[in-house]
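Marked as duplicate of an earlier ticket. Keeping the data here for the record.
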Amino acid sequence: MRDYLKYKFLIPFILLFGFCPIIGFPQFAPAAGDPGTTAIHMDSSIFVNWATNCSIIIGQEDISNPQSVLASAGDSTMAIGAPGNGVVSLGDGGYAVLTFEKPIKNGTGWDFAIFENSFSNTFLELGLVEVSSDGLNYFQFESTSFTQDTLQIDAFGTINPEMINNLAGKYRATFGTPFDLEELAFEQGLDVNNITHIKIIDVIGSIDPAIGTYDQFGNIINDPFPTPFPSSGFDLDAIGVIHEQTLNLVDNHHLNNIYNLIIVNGIITYNLKSTKDEELNCSIIDLSGRKIYENEVMVKKGINSFRINISDYNIGIYLLKISSCNSSFSKKFFKI
C-alpha cells in the first residue's frame, strides 16, 4: 500500500487544524535496503526503458548570493539512458525536462523511478516532480517534508528518508525513487496514460522563507544548503520507465511520427505520413513552455511535407508538436 494511503487518516487533522499533528517522527518508507523501503535498484527487471532526451535549465550554485555562478557539473546527455553515465547537477532551483521513446502510462503500482547520486542513505538532495501529457501543462506530485525547519541543514548535513515522500532524491545512488501516476489520475488536462514529459525541479533547501521550497502542506523543505560547488543542487542520473505504451499512440491514430526534419537557411522542412485525410494542430514550443508558433495543417492520405520559417527565432532548443483530437507527438530541434 502506498505511503499516502497509509497516512490518509491525517487528512481530517490537516483540514481541521491546518497542520499535521505528528510531525517529528518517521512517517514514510525507509532507506534503500531497509525493510519496507520502496527503493528500486537500477538492475531490477521492472524497468522496461529509460529517458531518451533531456533538456535543462541550470540554477546558481548559491541562489542566496547574487554573485554566484551557475552549477556546471555534467550535461544533459548524462541523464539519458540507464544510471551510470554520469550525472547533471541542476543548481539551486534549476530543472530538467526528460522525454521518452514511448509515452509512460498508469499501470498497476509504480510507473517510473528517478535516480540521484547520493553517496549515503541520509545525504539527500531533493527534487520536486512534475509530469505532462502535452509538453505544455505540468502537474506536480504532492510532496511531503516532515524534516525540522528551524535549523538549516548545512552543505554536508543529513536527512532521514522516512521524513519525506514524493520527492526525487529520497534514495542513494543506484536506487530509484518511484512514483505512481494514479495519484494524478483526476487532474483535469492530464492524460496519465500518455505521459510524454517529466520535469524534475531542484529543491532550494534554504529555510529562508523568501527563497525556500515548500511541500503540499506549506512546510518548508529543508535540505543541504548552501552548496556553493559546481555540483550544486539535485544531481540527476536517470529516469527508469516501469509502464509504457505497448504501441506508439500515433500508430493507433493514423499518423507516423515526425520524420525527415531538416533546417536549411532558417526553414524547417518535415514530413508526416497519414493513413487518412485529417486536420492537425502544429505548434512550436520553447524550453520555457511558451508556444511561439501555431497553425492548423491538413494532411492527406500518404506522405505530407511541411515548411515553417524559423529564421527569426533565437538560437536554442525547441519542440515541434503535432496533435489531433485524440493523439499527439513531438520532436525536438536545435536552431543555430
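See parent ticket for discussion. Residues 249-335 form a domain with the Immunoglobulin-like fold (CATH 2.60.40.3080).
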